[in-house]
């Protein structure tokens, strides 16, 4: 169960990375937590060995690790679609405010136009 949680956590980061919401330094801590939960790949181990300030390398290694784990980082359009599906599923499930969730879908569809 711990491994599944670690993989799920990494998959969430994949979407944020695709939306340019993460930086390399953010990935190293998540990587360490995933490794501690038993999630393993060659690139995750390499990522754990990077020092601070190697954020470009961290992003590249994270992308490789997610490929190795079978959850590649989508392009921005794919990430938006994923987020819209999550919001739609929340509306159907009755969790969250439907109006706020609909706005979230619209923002993702149109991009952040504020």
How would you sum up this structure, described in words?
The chain has helices spanning 2-18, 24-36, 42-48, 55-68, 76-93, 98-110. The protein has 114 residues and is an all-alpha fold. The chain folds into two domains: 2-68, no CATH class; 76-110, no CATH class. Helix 5 packs antiparallel against helix 6 (98-110). The longest helix has 18 residues, at 76-93. The protein is elongated.
Spell out the key features of this protein.
114 residues, 2 domains
Question: In which range does the helix fraction lie?
Answer: over 70%
Enumerate the spans where pLDDT stays under 50 for 5 or more consecutive residues. Answer: none
Give the H and E element order.
Answer: HHHHHH
Distance between the termini: 40 Å
Structural class: mainly alpha
Radius of gyration: 15 Å
Query: Beta-strand level of the residues, as a percent range?
Result: under 5%
Number of domains: 2
Number of E strands: 0
User: Quick one: biggest sheet?
Assistant: none
Number of helices: 6
Please tell me what the overall shape is.
Answer: elongated
Instruction: Tell me, rounded to a whole number, the average pLDDT.
Output: 83
């Amino acid at each position: 169960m711990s491994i599944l949680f670690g993989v799920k956590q990494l998959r969430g980061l994949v979407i944020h990375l695709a939306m340019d919401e993460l930086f390399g330094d953010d990935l190293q801590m998540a990587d360490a937590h995933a490794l501690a939960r038993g999630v393993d790949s060659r690139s995750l181990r390499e990522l754990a060995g990077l020092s601070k300030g190697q954020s470009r390398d961290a992003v590249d290694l994270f992308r490789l690790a997610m490929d190795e784990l079978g959850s590649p980082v989508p392009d921005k359009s794919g990430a938006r679609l994923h987020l819209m599906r999550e919001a739609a599923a929340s509306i159907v499930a009755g969790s969250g405010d439907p109006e706020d969730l609909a706005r979230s879908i619209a923002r993702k569809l149109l991009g952040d136009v504020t």
